[in-house]
Amino acid sequence: MAEQATTGASASRGEVDKLREELASSREEVLRLRDLLIGKDAELGAVRGRLAELEAGTGRLVNAAASLRARIPRFVRAPLGRLRKRPGRQG
User: Fold this and answer.
1) For 30, which of 23, 47, 59, 79 is 20 to 30 Å away at the CA?
2) Which residues constitute the domain of residue 69?
3) What is the largest CA-CA distance in the chain?
4) 43 part of a folded domain
């Protein structure tokens, strides 16, 4: 009977060791995935920052174009608008 208890204990230890290895492996995988997520989050932040810069630049260009149009007298703008329209083109 003592042999059965020893055999059961060593089998149980083997299972425990296997579970500890699996747990360690899982923790390493979680850390790897966390690092990957942090890297992707940093990339996304950089892209969002660049997009904000481009949007700000576009806004300045639109404002500059509107300002230039406002300074051109209407009698000059009207013929230019008609010249831009091509025959056969709807618009």
Assistant:
1) 47
2) 20-84
3) 111
4) yes
The pTM score is 0.51
Is 13 contained in some domain? no
63: its two tokens? 């404002």
pLDDT at residue 84, as a whole number:
73
State the Cα–Cα distance between residues 36 and 14, nearest whole angstrom: 33
**Residue 54: closest CA among 46, 82, 4:** 46
Cα Rg of the chain, angstroms: 35
Residue 53: pLDDT over 70: yes
The letter for the amino acid at 17 is D
Decide which of 24 and 59 is more confident.
24
Q: Flag whether 91 is in a domain.
A: no
For residue 7, being part of any structural domain is answered with: no
Count of domains forming the chain: 1
Residue ranges in the chain assigned as alpha helix (H)? 2-71, 74-84
